[in-house]
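Quick one, tokens below:
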């Protein structure tokens, strides 16, 4: 079985003081570096539709209102190698035009170049879904791709 589109095409990460975040059409991924040797019992993570809170050993690392809504019951977090917390949030709006410009409402914004690359990637991911027999993982996109690119769904086949 072929790897999902986002795995073949790479990710467009947005660096932060605590780690990085990136997105696909459906999900937002957050990777937080924590002190080596961190145990799951040291982690307090609250994932709500529009709010996130993460603390390790009583120290708040990430807290605030998310840029857009997520599906509360589908958010997860894992501790990997006792030094990285990976949080996966499922977007409520899974349209290519819903490219988050920041992780939180007023924090961790992607710089303009990164935002442009994120939008290009989500548009290519949308094209891949609409045309499952084609491989867009190495494709370049230019022109009108903002807000998910042009809508070809009404064209005759």
């Amino acid at each position: 079985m072929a790897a999902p589109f986002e795995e073949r095409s790479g990710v467009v990460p947005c660096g932060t003081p605590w780690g990085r975040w990136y997105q696909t059409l459906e999900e937002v991924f957050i990777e937080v570096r924590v002190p080596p040797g961190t145990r799951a019992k040291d982690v307090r993570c609250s994932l709500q539709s529009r709010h996130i809170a993460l603390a390790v050993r009583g120290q708040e690392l990430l807290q605030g209102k998310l840029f857009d809504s997520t599906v509360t019951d589908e958010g997860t977090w894992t501790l990997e190698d006792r030094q990285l917390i990976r949080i996966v949030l499922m977007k409520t709006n899974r349209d290519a035009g819903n490219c988050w410009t920041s992780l939180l409402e007023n924090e961790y914004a992607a710089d303009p170049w990164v935002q442009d690359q994120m939008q290009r990637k989500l548009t290519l991911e949308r094209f891949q879904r609409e045309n499952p027999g084609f491989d867009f993982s190495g494709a370049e996109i230019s022109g009108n791709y903002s807000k998910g690119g042009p809508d070809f769904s009404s064209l005759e086949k």
